[in-house]
Each structure stands twice: as structure tokens, then as C-alpha cells.
## 1
Amino acid sequence: MNDLYRLVSKVFIGKQNNMLTKITGARVLFPDDIVETDVLVDGERIVELDSSVLADRTIDGKGQLLAPAIVDIHGDAFERQMMPRPGVLFPLDAALLETDRQLATNGIATAYHALTLSWEPGLRSVERGEAFVDARDKLEHRLTVENRIQLRWETFAFEAFDLIERVLQGGLTPSLAFNDHTSMSMRSLELPVQERLFEHNPAFGVADTHSPKFANRISSSAKRAGLETDQYRDLINSIWDRRAEVPAMIERVAGIARARSAPMLSHDDTQDETRDYFRSLGATISEFPMRISVARAAKTAGDAIVFGAPNVVRGGSHIGSVHAGDMVEDGLCDILASDYFYPAMLAAVARLAEEKRAPLHQLWSLVSIGPALASGLRDRGDIAVGKRADLVLIDWPQGAPPAVTLTMAAGRVAYHAAR
């Protein structure tokens, strides 16, 4: 390349942002190494490495790490902008704009918002989901990073079908996650959540819903839904009557997702039978498997395995499931997701690196190329000529926690902090 390329590209490319930007002096994280070099960006793409071209804009990365921007396959922290206190709903425009900025400041250039579509009223209702989708579509041109949707579908919520079909036929292909917190709540009171049977197994044991222990189990869900505990109990009992119809609805929804080539995930798998069932429908991503045996079965079958980054940062699961750090070290984790806390993505990589679970370039794949490939996004996730310029510059002194100083999404600066 030379200055002639610079002139020709400015005249003819005509992209949203055809400014030549060069990031200089940073230690660049590649899939197999970390090398100090320059990265040249033209419009939305990386066009040259170790470039001598004179750029329109130069960003000094000296002393910092330049990595592929983070891809978050599952995050529901946006719910705290929607409902910062129980029962206190905020305008969705404000919530979404604030969420977008939080993503950018945490180095996340692609986010799948885990939008729960439930039979519950309130925060996770289908009506609230429709409003969120509408707000995302209306604000898309003002968002700084790519805000995608994970249709986190509660499989007993038949009323969500029309919205699922609409989003699957829309512009940015969503992902589809099969959730069954209904069966999880209705399981036998003596059975830990990690040991429950496959939801459609005839031997699945059901709780006494009039027991005080059951009332305690559903109390937080009732509060989220804006219901008294007795009201929530009556509602979930009526929803449970749909159980025999659920498998047919799952197959119907999965068929639409397959036709759209949407990535599909099953959530909180506890049995090999569960994983086998959803894999047979095309869900080749196991999201937060609750037992090591299930993770091993998923790995053997070639499924992608997701764990929560907060699990790593906190040193274990907050509900007593498997330790994600151990899963990374044992090769049973391909992807880390923000789950409920966006800053956990970078913090998890830092903790894993400090614990020497694997080399940094391998650990970074858990938040970049791993989730990108599992989601079918082959244009991002690593730093290479021709890839989308989704980049994050990190101030990371030895022995100190890392901090994002720059996030680029498709070549556009989404966040830039002065040092």
C-alpha cells in the first residue's frame, strides 16, 4: 500500500466512515501470539498490518494492548436499566441508550441482549419484549455498537410466538435460546436445581405448590412480575397445564430459527438427555451447563459451551453450579458471556490470565472469536486483514487490573477515554 491507495480509497469507497485510521505502537493480540505492530483501518475494515501509510487519524496505542473487541453472546444486565428497582420501570429509550454506552466502555462491540420472553407479567413479559424490540429498531442508527437480540424464550410462553417470528425475519439475525424456568420452578422441592431431570422426561417430579417451601422458591420471581406470591403460584399452576403441548411448540419455533440460520442455544442443561434433545433441533450451543458430565457430553458432540464471566470473577457460580475457571482449564469452555454484569468479560480474562489457566491469546478467544464463530459472525473476532474493525485498546499495566481506553465497532470509535 502507499499514498495512492489512500487517495483512491477516499474517492471511491464511499462507506459510512472511509477515514483511514492507524493505531500505532500497541501490542497486538493475534490468535497465536502478541506482537507490537500498527493496524490500519479503512472504513469498516482492517486493511493492513505493520503499515507505513500516512493515515487521516492516528491513535497512539504505545504501552497498551490492542485486541479484537468483545462479542457478548448472552447479557441481561440491560434489565437493570429497564427496571433499576423492583417494580420501577424506566423509559426504554433511555435504558437502551445507556446500555449501549456501557457496552462500548467495556470493550463490547457486539452484544446479544438476552431478552426474556415469558408468560410472566412485568419486566419479562412479551409486551415488554415487543417494546424493547421496537426501541432497538428505532434507535439503531444512534447506537455506538451492534445491539443484537437473543430471544431468550421461556418455552411455556406460547404467546411469544408472533414476536419470535417477527424478530427472526428482521434485519440483524437474532439468536434463540430455549429456557424452561417454569419446569425449574415446578421441580420436586427436594431436588437441587442442578440435578433435575430432562423437563420432558415422564419421571420428572413436581412440587407441592401449596407448600411454604414452594412459596419461598417463587417469591423473587413474584416480586419481579409485580405479583403477590399467591397470585404467582396460581399463575404458574395454570401455565403448567400447557406442559403436554410444549414439545410441539418447541419444534415449531426451532423450525423457524433453522430456516433463518439463527444460532440456537439451550440454557442451564442438567442432563445429557437435555443436550441431546436440543441438539437434535439444531441448538448446537450449550449455555451454562450445570453439570460437568453435560459439558463433557457437549464437547464430545462438538457443541460450543458457554459459561458466565461473573462465575470466573467471583471464583464460582452464585447458584452452586460448576466453576467456570476449572472448565476453561479443562477445555470445557469455549465462550464466556457477561451474563448479568458487563465488566465481568474483561475482568474474567484478567483473572484467568493471573491464575495462568492458559496463555492470554487463548483466553481472549473466549470473548472474541469463540462467541463470534458460534454465532455465525465470521467477519469479526480476530485481528486480520479484511475483518471488521472491531477493536479494543486496553491499558493493562503488569500486576494491575485492565481498563478499556478505546472501543471501535466496524471502524467507528464508540468509546475513547483520555489517559
## 2
Amino acid sequence: MPLFSCPTNSPKVNEITLTDPCFISDLHLNSEDAGEVAAFENFLCTFAKKRKELVILGDFFDYWVGDDALFTAQSILSPLVKFSQTHSIYFMHGNRDFMVSSDFAHATGATLLADPTVAHYQDLTLLLSHGDLWCTKDVEYQKLRRKVRSVWWQWLMLRFPLKKRLNIAHNARMKSKTKKNRKKAEEMDVDAQTVIEAAQNVSADMVIHGHTHRPGQVPLTASLSRYVLGDWRHEAPDHFCGSCLVFEQKTPVYLHF
């Protein structure tokens, strides 16, 4: 492993052109949950296969501790690799899987995206993000985000044994759930003015993001809206549901399953 090789240094693109995209985020997939894996594979074979590109805007995995853990997620990666043979796949880091790196990209045929990324679709300019970057009212979280996305933190973390990193990830998820219950709803949502400024900086016609688990169209100005992707979740032990965002002509449409 090169001295300063870490996910934050992985090559990423910040501008793409799309022809017929399908957007998803916040799947929180865990290879140990056969129901989740089956739901994702069914999604690829039904909804996603009708489109040209699959754009994953973060939190695809419940957690990711490094690309040396690829072997632990083969049940998820295998259908993704098969899908990449006929479709383009774009992957953006979320707050749960920011340790995804070049080995994952090579193994799956995915292109890693910077956050945010500008996407051109027909004559529209889309600004894509996971969304947590814009939750600026949550000062504590933003400090943590800067730390774990830094070169030094990721470089040090990858030097821990894989078993140790898996334990750290599990404990962090438990602690995160406790803190989240204490935070106000506005702290965990994106800041509207921050999003507006980011969109205006690139002359975006619309914004697409995930993270907040509040799917729907949210007007920002008279001519600008953000489209929030929904999370995938268990509504019952044997019932897994989710959604994606596609375009019909130039109109964003949510598809639920």
C-alpha cells in the first residue's frame, strides 16, 4: 500500500453527462441481510435495467471500513458487477461508506464521483450530492465529517486490522443512533441557503441529494428545487421497500417498490 494511499485521495470526477439516469441513495445494504440483498438485485433486474446509468449518491452500504473488505460483500457486489457490463455506474461517498476507494471502483466498474458533482442531462444542469455536506447547522457533525474525510485519519484507520475496523464501525453506528435521537430535525436537514448558493455557483437547474431520508421535491427559489432521494428500509421483517428517481422526458419522477 503506497504511503499516502487512502479513499480521500482516490481519483474522482466532478462533472458527468447522463443520457437516461436512475438515482438512488441510502440503501444501507448489509451483506448479512439476505432480504436487503435480494431486494437490491430485484431492483437492478426490474427498475434499473430500463435506464442507461445507475447513479448512487452515498450510503449504499450500511458501513464500509476499507476496500480490503470487498470479500465480505460479494453477495452485493456480484449483481452490481453483472449490471456494469451493460450499464454505467456512478458512485458517490456517503457518511456511512466514505471509505470506498479505487479497488471497489475497479472491481465493480463504477466511476467514483466527487461531492458535489455537476451532471448534464439533455439541456439541464443537475447538482448532485449525498447531502450531508450541506447540513451546516449540525456543527458537531461537520467537525466529525472533516476529520474522517482527512488523509491522516483514513491513512491511520486503514492500518488497523480489518477485524478491529469492523468493530469500530459497529460501535460508531450504535453511538450515531443515540446522538441522532437527541438532535433537532432542522439540525439534520440541509440548510436551504447553503444549497441555493452551491446551485447558483454552477448555474444548476435542480439539485438531487439523499442523506436526510425525506424524499420529495422541495422548492428553494421560484425556479430552483431540490429532489431528495428516499432511503430503503424494512417495514416488516419480510417486507423491504425503497424508491429511485428517474426522468420522464425532463421531469423528475419517483418510482417506489
